[in-house]
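A reminder before we start the practical. When you read a complex entry, don't treat the lines as separate problems. The point of joint prediction is that each chain is placed relative to the others, so the output describes one connected object in space. Small molecules and nucleic acid strands, if listed, are placed in the same frame. In the example below there are two entries. Take a minute to note the order of the lines before looking further.
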Amino acid sequence: MRALAFLAAALLAAATPAWAADATRGAALAEARNCAACHGANGISAVPLMPSLAGQQAEFLLVQLIMFREGLRPVPAMVEPARGLTDGEIEDLAAFYAALPSGPAATDPRNEALAARGAELSAARNCSTCHRPDYSGQAQVPRINHQREDFLVHTLAEYRDNLRVGMDTQMNGVMHGLTNADIRAIAHYLAHR
Amino acid sequence: MNTNIIPALAGAALLLAPGLVLAQGAPPPAWAQGRSPEMANSTLAPHAGRLTVTPPDQLPTAQLRVPEGFQVELWAHGLPGARVMVRGPNGTIFVGTRGIGRVYAVREEGGQRRVSTFMQGLTQPSGLAIRDGALYISAINRMLRVDNVEQNLSNPQPVDLTAAFNLPEAPHHGWTHIAFGPDGRLYVPRGVPCNICDTDGERYALIASFNPDGSDRRIEARGVRNSVGFDFHPRTGQLWFSNHGRDWAGNDNPSDTLHVNMRRGEHHGFPWCHSGWQDPAVSGRLCSEFPPPALILGPHVAPIGTHFYTGTAFPEQYRNALFIANRGSWNRERLSGYEVVVVREAEGGRLVQEPFLTGFRDDANQRFLGRPAGVLTMPDGSMLVSDEQNGAIFRITYRR
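Here is the predicted structure of the whole assembly.
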């Protein structure tokens, strides 16, 4: 096949060379962009509403960073950190955080009634089909265990309220019709697994 | 804000939606509504798209196959998520996307082909149409118009027509194809915000048309679960549209379909009837009440680009034939689709389809190498096909 000579725009051309994601380069980039300030030194967040990234699916991280860079997921705190990242740098960052061991389950007391309600809601919505039975995620589908409960509440409500979409719109449909109490139950259940 | 998709569905009332008999329990997620018991433990999930640049040496160009006498070559790359393509009067190809939120412009300058990001930060801008030098962009409920678009490639100042069109805000199945009909009206489909559900049939599961300014809305086709590709027959002007069948009813049922809208407002069967298959999960009306599809395309093949070839460079039997880009299955254990098919009239006016551009689907290893999405005839009679997975555009030519 003949490849035609053509000139891509500068941004695209810069990302065109074959790139192998490199967690070491990603670690340096995470330090340069001060990711740990919010997401924790080992990718385990101690800051309210800030997600843990350790052990997150690389493909999910990649999608989210591209959405921040492109202004598609409006989170003010992520505007500067994502500015100007190339596709390759994003792949490196994703590889770095994906390789870190994910955090423990929440250590605060588990409310059995709330967790049971959350388990019931999760089963009815077949969460474990895409997010896998242990909720560790796969590819573009994120890990949702070992995550801050307050962040889960926040992000699930954003999907329900159509304040964010993913690469597709599956989660908007999934969350349709859930109440705030339902979301609290699902988040409690997931955070305590 | 929470979209008011199904007014009757507050809390437990969800289970009592008229016309639907769904499993008891909390409402299932959009993609799993109506899941059959035998698929309850299925591990099928939508495939991950790719939002980064695929280098040319990783493209499946060498694996692609076309019929004898045709050639396929790489035409452009570096357009992550490339989907629908339209051509401006001065030759710029505009390319819409979904997840990455961009509209690209591809143009020739000084003998070189340049790809640039024309607009970005839009939510699922999958619908593009050109009229009088203006580009119309549909992004879920937003509708934008960029006047004199090819004179304003570096600094587009869109006119916001969102309020005039008043499209539903529900994102799911809200990404859409748009096109101007031979009547000068803009056709805008709207899928159902679910897999199967009872919806407001005046807002969802339809194809509507509008004046270019968004006024005078008319419903052209009803009972259409999710059409993301259509075109108008070059001779008759009739609306031909492809439609995605429901998920979670089995590997081989129902099929995706091709329909011809014979009269304005015609009802095509959703939610009761899919490709002539009576949905056991939904009671109320029978398949016999609806016109049958013009052609059964195959289970879960996911027809996107649906385009009449209007050039003359291809052999006679391809002229005015319908090309359909099947983006490929996810809700099926073995892959289906992942190819461009051509639909032609056989003897007696019966429609038949045959593969045209293949090689994206690797049956032996059950993997796919790309996902064809958009189809466009070029003025020289060649054809462009976009590959959404790889962010590439291929060109097909014919030489005797």
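Discuss with your neighbour: Strands of chain A lie at 6-8. What might explain this?
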